[in-house]
Specification:
By secondary structure, this protein is α/β, with parallel strands linked by helices. The chain is built from 16 helices and 12 strands. The protein folds into 3 domains: about 140 residues, 2-Layer Sandwich (Double Stranded RNA Binding Domain); about 190 residues, Rossmann fold (3-Layer(aba) Sandwich), CATH 3.40.50; about 80 residues, Helicase, Ruva Protein, domain 3, CATH 1.10.8.60. It binds adenosine-5'-triphosphate and magnesium ion.
């Protein structure tokens, strides 16, 4: 132990200041890494959100880089314990006083614990900070999203201009329960899974299908969910991927899922018009779509408990989907034309100037039309009014369309269908 005594030892306040600095750098609260120094023993213990094999392997790599002599004390799939040896590796005297790293599931939760008798050497402090940076540093939100955008995905961040929507309360309630709540509170679901089954099989869906006729709000709702949940929506450009070179398309789709997996935060992966992968009679196309489909099936299975991301598929033709694909969707949400109450809310949204009676009258006449049609009818009435204003600048026209204007627009719509 002669050599060791000669090395500089760090003071506790110095160590503490350095750990505070790292917490700050990682965007964590002050005190996130609060070491203790009791009975001449240094201990740093912190809770981890996630422990996976790659974190354990990286811990070994980091230890290798900073420590000369050490051994793995214990290792399994989700637990690793490392112990530094004496400078003279043949001496076992007081060996357990050296720095020890334990990482994984213990103390009933995922924990990183570093302890050492006495205080730290500079190399040991660098080891600790490297480990903390690895365990607590997340990939930057912008980077993964930028990479997804670079491979052709439409990326909608929750702070972007997300659509405002109206109506469909029952559907929205269901979506909240199926998608929004699990995305926002994964730990609650995980705790329940643990309490019921001693494992962490996901108890909330990883894939949901939006099924319904054209113009019933599937695409709009997917984007809106990102806003509600506070996570990005990534629009997977299936058409675009399908038209890529043979072989390239399945690689691109796989890469999109891998990126989503690596994001370190939940994403809503939205695959619009997923029926593009429906079995086709065209042999050549079929081969390409079949490969793409098999990648998708594999990736949907792979999005296991590792991530809380959710994949949403949307289709007008659920009945045409491949059976294996259809079975991956744990929840199928039906989109349909608004009922009268929805129609009233939609009209209040698109034509707020109408009185309650006018609203009810228009809603009654619009019943059974898809939301897209209602929206188009309302916006068309606005354009008709604008044109009149431009062509007759002196005539006293109202600021906004009247019920009659909307009814005319509706009649036009019906006439041209
Ligand atoms: N809840 C809503 N409130 C207000 N406007 C809506 C709502 N849902 C959809 N819209 C509007 O209706 C239009 C059509 O909706 P959307 O494109 O989402 O339908 P879709 O089901 O994806 O159709 P398709 O099957 O043809 O792709 C959009 O322009 C959107 O602005
Ligand atoms: Mg759509």
């Amino acid at each position: 132990m002669k050599g060791e005594a000669a090395l500089p030892q760090l003071g506790f306040s110095e160590i503490r200041a350095e750990l505070e600095r790292v917490a700050l750098e990682l965007g964590l609260s002050n005190g996130a890494f609060e070491p203790t120094f009791e009975r001449n023993e240094f201990t740093l213990r912190c809770a981890l959100e996630e422990v996976d094999e790659s974190l354990l392997l990286d811990t070994i790599t980091i230890a290798k880089k900073h420590l000369e002599n050490w051994r793995i004390h214990n290792a399994d799939k989700n637990y690793l314990s490392l112990q530094a040896l004496n400078d003279n590796i043949f001496s076992t005297e007081g060996v357990l006083d050296n720095i020890r790293i334990r990482i994984g599931a213990f103390y009933n939760e995922k924990t990183l614990e570093i302890s050492r008798k006495g205080t730290l050497r500079p190399a040991e402090l660098s080891l600790i900070t490297a480990l903390l940076r690895r365990a607590f540093g997340r990939p930057r939100v912008r980077d993964v999203l930028a990479e997804l955008a670079a491979v052709g995905c439409g990326v909608y961040r929750p702070d972007d201009d997300m659509p405002e929507i109206a109506g469909f309360r029952r559907l929205r309630e269901k979506l909240r329960e199926t998608i929004v709540l699990p995305l926002k509170n994964p730990e609650v679901y995980e705790r329940i899974a643990r309490a019921t089954r001693n494992n962490t099989v996901r108890n909330h869906p990883r894939a949901v299908l939006f099924a319904g006729p054209p113009g019933t709000g599937k695409t709009t709702m997917a984007r809106f969910l990102g806003k509600e949940a506070g996570f990005p929506v990534v629009h997977v450009p299936l058409e675009n991927i399908l038209s890529a070179y043979y072989g390239e398309s399945s690689r691109r789709l796989a890469w999109i899922f891998d990126l989503a997996q690596a994001a370190g935060f939940p994403l809503i992966l939205f695959i619009d018009e997923i029926d593009a992968l429906a079995p086709s009679r065209n042999e050549k196309l079929f081969e390409a779509t079949r490969r793409l489909l098999s990648v998708l099936l594999r990736k949907l299975d792979g999005l296991g408990s590792l991530t809380t991301s959710v994949t949403i598929g949307a289709t007008n033709r659920p009945q045409d989907l491949d059976a294996a694909l259809l079975s991956r969707f744990e929840s199928i949400l039906e989109f349909s034309e608004p009922d009268e109450e929805d129609a009233r809310e939609l009209i209040a949204f698109y034509a707020k100037q109408l009185t309650a009676e006018e609203n009810t009258e228009l809603a009654r006449q619009c019943a059974g039309l898809p939301v897209r049609a209602i929206r188009d009818i309302c916006l068309r009435a606005e354009r008709m009014l604008a044109r009149q204003k431009i062509e007759n600048p002196t005539s006293p026209l109202p600021d906004a369309p009247t019920l009659e204007d909307y009814l005319r627009s509706l009649a036009d719509y019906r006439a041209h269908r």
